[in-house]
Write a structure and sequence with these properties.
single chain; alpha/beta; Rossmann fold; 2 domains; seven-stranded mixed β-sheet; two-stranded antiparallel sheet
Length: about 250
């Protein structure tokens, strides 16, 4: 089976692409060993890991160096969001209600370390979630949660406006809906690129967002503040935690 998988991968990627893919996979194996004995240059705010270097993210269609935590598999966006959440929780107190869509393993570890929170992770299926829920028809009362998180979720939804409206509906007055999504490289000057279907070359995304994501959030009945990790986190912390710049959209009920 493994040989057949490799032959199929080689046909899809071509010789040079396949060699690059295998080289990065091998480098990750060596990095796991180096991280056991090397100096602690980096750390993960989600799980507490410390080591010499983050692992490379290796997929057939997408690769990124020094991106993945060896312990909890967090990526830059998870680590940046964890730092933002840690500051937010400390400022607002720990006993508030959190709704987390498509809960990532790394952020679940972050929330598990804060048992005073009333945390609920939901997804379409029960895998790695506490309950099942459709983001376009959330089965909870209005204003039920103080913090709602949807990170890299709405690009998978055909009707993102319905999803955003539901996120705003269940967010309590004074609460926040934190929304992240894959963004176009020049997103500040570019509007969302709609595909009209789940594009197979973009991991099933219906769209890639531009600056008008903020307007879509506001059209759903929330005030929206657009933040960036570069503005929120100082350069040394971004380096130490392996965080690249990314956009965070904060919706608040109007």
């Amino acid at each position: 089976m493994a040989l057949n998988d490799d032959l199929g991968r080689a046909r899809r990627l071509g010789l040079s692409g396949y060699v690059s893919y295998r080289r990065m996979r091998l480098a990750n194996r060596l990095l796991r060993i180096i991280n056991l004995v090397g100096p602690e240059r980096y750390q993960c705010p989600c799980c507490g890991w410390r080591g010499t270097r983050f692992l490379d993210h290796v997929r057939e269609t997408y690769r990124m160096k020094a991106a993945v935590c060896p312990r909890c598999r967090s990526h830059s966006r998870h680590r940046g969001l964890a730092l933002y959440l840690a500051d937010s929780i400390s400022q607002n107190g720990s006993r508030f209600r959190v709704l987390h869509f498509a809960p990532e393993r790394s952020l679940r570890k972050f929330f598990a370390a804060r048992p005073a929170l009333r945390y609920l992770g939901v997804d379409l299926g029960p895998r790695a979630a506490d309950a099942c829920a459709d983001i376009t028809a959330i089965p909870f009362r209005s204003a039920s949660f103080d913090l709602v998180i949807a990170s890299h979720v709405i690009e998978h939804v055909g009707d993102d406006r319905a999803a955003l409206a539901e996120l705003g509906r269940v967010t309590a007055p004074g609460g926040r809906a934190l929304i992240m999504a894959p963004m176009l490289s020049r997103w500040r000057e570019t509007e969302t690129r709609e595909f009209g279907y789940p594009h197979p070359d973009y991991e099933g995304h219906w769209r890639i967002y531009g600056h008008d994501l903020a307007a879509r959030i506001e059209a759903a009945g929330m005030r929206c503040t657009t933040l960036t990790f570069a503005a929120l986190i100082d350069p040394e912390r971004r380096r130490r935690f392996g965080i690249i710049d990314d956009a965070l959209f904060v919706g608040q009920p109007g």
